[in-house]
Design a protein that fits this description.
The complex is a heterodimer of chains A (236) and B (240). Chain A is mainly α. Chain A has one domain: MetI-like (MetI-like fold). Chain A is built from nine helices and two strands; from the N terminus they run H-E-E-H-H-H-H-H-H-H-H. Chain A starts with 7 loop residues before the first helix and ends in a 9-residue tail after the last helix. Chain B folds into two domains: 36 residues; 199 residues, MetI-like fold. Chain B has nine helices and no strands. In chain B, helix 3 packs across helix 6 and helix 4 packs antiparallel against helix 6. The chains are: A mainly alpha (236), B mainly alpha (240).
Chain lengths: 236, 240
């Protein structure tokens, strides 16, 4: 007999059972849980988050490089991430769903808006941090503005840029958990539709989302270290 | 006589009410309805403020204690940052339900999850703030005969206030945002006016509750900045 204060261990063991074995849904009829469905939802979660981060990078990095290189738009680049933090992610998703409707595209757009500010701010800050003497030297050697950006500022700003992508990625993966409210079945569906998956499914969902977030954090932390040129290891 | 003057006014109120209910039934954005039903947001707003202030307050107390403990044990800073970093990474929604078998549904669960989230930001800023205190200031303090404890409270912490407040500002703004998810932990808050069951398509509610959350984030930010202004009078001296 297990001690009552340790009863929660049974809950966790049932949750792991849900991850590995299918069972009948609470609502009856269909089979839920099991590795197949877990992988399906994980893939949807990664696809949604990846699309949002990719689009956000494609937009924010060039803009951040341009603003950083010219030194213009400091107020925009810096304050955007402060303002961005104040907008609750739940409200952002709900706003998109209420006004544009459910679906993969709309949720992706909402997540893109969430992901842009940290990447833009970090790109801008990373470029501005580059020693002006290095840029003078490069210009003196005959590099054109585009070459200065591509061969000097971008490589030196990479650790900072990846720091921004890492912040955004962790944020987006966490927020993608509420995507089922907008009709995109990510791992969050196990959590939000407890009437279908039961308490075991809900706890399993929480475990899976937590593991995914930590994995993403570790992957981007490693990437950030790998892109740091020797000698300017940035501690974060 | 009163009836005669009041009748047209009452009729107007009636029409306005009916049109705002109509507007809601068509699920449009209805500012008039928000004004008429503002009282329904009072309780969630109060819950939201309590969740945020309590979580950031406890987070600050723990982070402050950790920062003081690691001052003489620099080797511990790395592990503390690593551990709080994991807590920071875990999505709040997941933490709510990981805690559910242990602490059940309700405010306690939400506060634990939100507090765990704030530790990393606040701890890091206190450590940075204390590290940024110029050696000259510390030397001057020691030269004046201050003990280590006096030096900490009278020289180092006051000079670290701007960095510490910067951390608290990030923590409080983020926590206001995350506290909208507390509704899933059964702790109410403004999220309860954004999500009804698993329905998030109530246009007016989304704008009203989301807008209130943003206003709350800015209000707390202003209060923290005012606190910093009060605590650092020497920064206000104009150069002659």
């Amino acid at each position: 007999m297990i001690h009552p204060t340790l009863a929660f261990l049974t809950d966790f063991s049932n949750a792991f059972d849900f991850i590995f074995h299918t069972r009948e849904a609470q609502t009856g009829g269909v089979q839920v849980g099991g590795l197949h469905q877990v992988l399906e939802f994980t893939w949807e979660h990664i696809k949604l988050s990846g699309a949002a981060i990719g689009i956000a990078c494609a937009f924010a990095i060039p803009l951040g490089l341009a603003l950083g290189h010219t030194g213009k738009g400091e107020l925009l680049a810096i304050s955007l991430s402060n303002v961005g933090r104040a907008v609750p992610s739940l409200a952002l998703i709900a706003f998109f769903v209420a006004y544009l409707g459910v679906g993969f595209t709309n949720v992706t757009l909402a997540l893109v808006l969430l992901a842009i500010p940290p990447i833009l701010t970090n790109t801008y800050v990373g470029v501005r941090q580059v020693d002006p003497e290095v840029i003078d030297a490069a210009t003196g050697m005959g590099l054109r503005a585009v070459q200065v950006v591509r061969r000097i500022e971008l490589p030196l700003a990479l650790p900072s840029i990846f720091g921004g992508i890492r912040t955004s990625a962790v944020n987006v993966v966490a927020t993608a958990t509420i995507a089922p409210l907008a009709g995109v079945l990510t791992l969050g569906d196990f959590i939000l539709s407890a009437n279908v998956y039961g308490a075991d499914g809900r706890l399993a969902g929480a475990i899976l989302v937590a593991l995914l977030a930590i994995t993403v954090e570790l992957v981007f932390a490693t990437l950030q270290r790998l892109v740091s040129p020797k000698g300017i290891k940035v501690s974060t | 006589m009163y009836a005669a003057t009041l009748a047209p006014v009452l009729a107007q109120v009636e029409i306005r009410n009916r049109s705002s209910e109509n507007c809601i039934q068509q699920n449009k954005l209805c500012p008039g309805w928000i004004v008429d039903h503002f009282d329904r947001y009072t309780h969630p707003l109060v819950q939201h403020i309590v969740l945020t202030v309590v979580s950031v307050g406890i987070g600050f107390a723990i982070a402050f204690a950790l920062a003081l403990l690691t001052r003489r044990r620099r080797w511990a800073v790395g592990p503390v940052l690593g551990f709080t970093g994991i807590l920071y990474t875990l999505p709040s929604l997941a933490v709510f339900f990981l805690l559910l078998p242990i602490t059940g549904r309700g405010t306690l669960t939400a506060v634990i999850a939100l507090t765990a989230y704030t530790l990393q930001i606040i701890f890091r800023n206190i450590v940075i703030g204390l590290d940024n205190v110029p050696d000259e200031a510390k030397d001057a303090g020691r030269g004046m005969g201050l003990t280590d404890r006096q030096l900490l409270w009278q020289v180092e912490l006051p000079l670290a206030v701007p960095d510490i407040v910067a951390g608290l500002r990030i923590a409080s703004t983020s926590t206001v945002g995350l506290a909208t998810l507390a509704v899933f932990a059964g702790a109410g808050g403004l999220g309860s006016e954004i999500v009804a069951g698993s329905n998030i398509t109530f246009k007016t509610g989304v704008v009203a509750a989301g807008g209130l959350a943003i206003l709350l984030a800015f209000a707390l930010d202003v209060i923290l900045l005012a606190g910093q202004w009060l605590l650092t009078p020497w920064r206000r001296v104009r150069p002659a």
